[in-house]
Specification:
This protein is mainly alpha-helical. 62% of the residues lie in helices and 0% in strands. It is built from five helices and no strands.
């Protein structure tokens, strides 16, 4: 890949990540459309994969499977405290 093509590819990737379609990018750079198309399809697929959000039902089912795999032991939640709290303890200011 030459430097100009890499710059065009970078711009197209940025545009796709901002919501622009592949066709819009290809229309902006018709001289590189043949090279860009397979690369941009891959980028769009990867972008779509990162946008996955499981449903509440799926999260709950996965949690129950994990608890069952752990022998029914419920997870213990630890209070979040600043790192320095363990150094100074619970002194009052």
């Amino acid at each position: 890949m030459n430097e100009k093509f890499e710059e065009i590819l970078d711009k197209c990737i940025d545009s796709i990540n901002k919501g622009e379609s592949i066709d819009e990018c290809l229309a902006s750079h018709p001289e590189h459309a043949g090279e860009l198309l397979p690369l941009l399809k891959t980028v769009a697929s990867a972008h779509k994969a990162t946008q996955f959000t499981p449903s509440v039902e799926k999260k709950q089912a996965a949690r129950q499977q994990l608890i069952a795999a752990m022998g029914g032991v419920e997870p213990v939640y630890i209070e979040k405290r600043p790192f320095w709290a363990s150094i100074f303890g619970k002194t009052k200011v």
